[in-house]
Design goal:
2 helices; about 0% strand
Amino acid sequence: MPPISGNQAIATILKHDNKTTSYKIALLRALNDLALLYPSLAD
């Protein structure tokens, strides 16, 4: 299975659950914090 981009992963998570719940918002915030802490991982 080829690796997927972060955008695709987040879109998939949000697409498969139609409810906007606090755990999804917390997940997105955590992913954003990781992206800001480790920008070199995007390369």
